Amino acid sequence: MRVSPLKNRFLQNDASFSERYGTEIVTRVRDVRTEYDAIRQTVGVTDFSFMQKFRFPEESGLDHLDDMMAGNVAKVRFGRVLHTFLPDDKGMLLADCYIANNDDEFIVLCESIADDAAIRQRFLEKDGHGGEDFTESHIVIGIDGYKAWEVARQLFGADILGLPYLSIERYLFNDIPVRLLRCGKTSEFGYLIMAPLEVADALFDKVLTLAQSFGGFLCGTDIHNDLRLEGRFFNIFAEGRQVGDPLVLGLQWMIDFEKERFPGRDELAGRRAAGLRKKIIGIQAPDSVMFETEKTLFDGDTAVGTVKATCFSYLLNASLGLALFENEVAYAGLPFHYGSPSGPAIRTISMPPIMPKSLTVKLDEL
Amino acid sequence: MTEAIRVLIEQRAAIINRFKEELIHRLNLPYEPQDLHEDVSLLGAGLGLDSLDALEIVLCIENCFGIKIPDQNTSILRSINTIVDYVLTEQEKRG
Predict the structure, then answer these.
(1) Measured between beta carbons, which residues in chain A are less than 8 angstroms from residue B52?
(2) Dihedral of CA A294/A295/A297/A301: which sign?
(3) H helices within B1-95, ranges in order?
(4) What is the rounded CA–CA span in Å between residue B64 and residue B80?
(5) Nearest residue in A to B85, CA atom
(6) Which residues contact A14 (CB under 8 A, 6 or more apart)?
(7) Domain containing A36: what range?
(8) Which of A87, A145, A290, B50 has the greatest number of CB atoms lying within 10 Å of its CB?
């Protein structure tokens, strides 16, 4: 099992750990509500070093990556980040990926639902791409939250305020180059810093100190599952793992159907042409109900859907979920019954159901 | 399918279909209507549209449904579904 170079820092903070697809992850540091509030109200610092990380020279890496990914890597402009996925030969999800065009290099960060070693082999097994595996030589620190931009600004200067969503920039930390990606999947401001091991501890300590100065905390990855669902960001570790088919999950925006080749392209095109039989839709429970995955949803006596991902929204004070519905009833605003034909009444909802605080801040006007 | 649900679906589907076709046409998006999940984020993440595209979306809503979007109210534009909710609410107000 691959262990994060930052493990000791999290152990010192009484964090909980678990294994996921051959990597150890920090699941929780504080209680759920504290971590939730850290990101929704201030800032949370999370260890994303479990991600697979690669660097490819731009010239030799472009075709290699474009042949692997569902999205069009050739269309990623300098300084921008493509959010796409790595499909298997059937066009099913293997990894959720950021592909960053950082001038003379492509940086790849992956969250995978396949074994860590297998994913790393998949990226590097062919010859001639010149790629390097940064997975164990670099850390990734996530800074997410309403005040995340304050931490990034203190670290790297006011220049970061001009970074649009899904962009990358190189900065120096202790005279060592680090890469900053503006991304994030919580619907608040979000940044990932990828840095080599030689500055890992110093960078982590600096980020945490800054975050704490804005009232922030260390967080585990579990809270990100909740926040992704609440903000309706795709989560490969929840609905992605449960469903597997990117079309059913509504991820067509990650795919360039005009590309001539990538793994599973023909299978995806075939499923697209045949039309979807199922679709994933948001659901919200009344006060008394907490959704559980794999529970059934009913229209009268007819089973119409199955819960695939759940979270509790403190902003809405309600249990939320994503459920896989038969296509003909896969619409927001419909009443169904949860668990049995006579179970509690629930509703399908429009996602995202919350308005994050970060949407009230315009960084380019600060 | 119960009658109540059938009516709700017809009402919503009509708005969704009209809006998606207009959106794809106006923004020249490389998708078919069925490729656009109604919850996909329109601005920033997801479709990755920018502030100019946001203006087109506002015009699209006005043209399709005769409904104006209040200035600065970007929360309505979070997804196709949040736009449809707004259109349904405004249509209900008009009776």
Answers:
(1) none
(2) positive
(3) 3-27, 51-65, 80-94
(4) 14
(5) A350
(6) A29
(7) 7-227
(8) A145
**A319 and A272 within one domain:** yes
Q: In degrees to the nearest 10, what's the CA dihedral of A221, A227, A232, A238? A: 40
Which tens digit of pLDDT belongs to each residue from A214-262? 999 999 999 999 999 999 999 999 999 999 999 999 999 999 999 999 9
Alpha helices in A160-233 (DSSP H): 200-213, 222-231
Q: CATH number for the domain including B21?
A: 1.10.1200.10
Q: Do A332 and B85 touch (CB under 8 A)?
A: yes
CA distances from A13 to A3, A16, A38, A213, B61 (A): 16, 9, 16, 17, 50
Burial of A267 (0-12, 13-18, 19+ CB in 10 A): middle
CA dist list (Å): A295 to A243, A323, A338, B90: 14, 9, 7, 35
Residues of chain B positioned with their CB less than 8 A from the CB of A359: 74-75
ipTM of the complex: 0.94
Tokens of A317: 């004070």
User: What is the pTM assigned to this prediction?
Assistant: 0.95
Query: What pLDDT was estimated at residue A317?
Result: 96
On whether any CB of chain B is under 8 Å from the CB of A22, the answer is no
- Residue the block writes with tokens 């860590």: A116
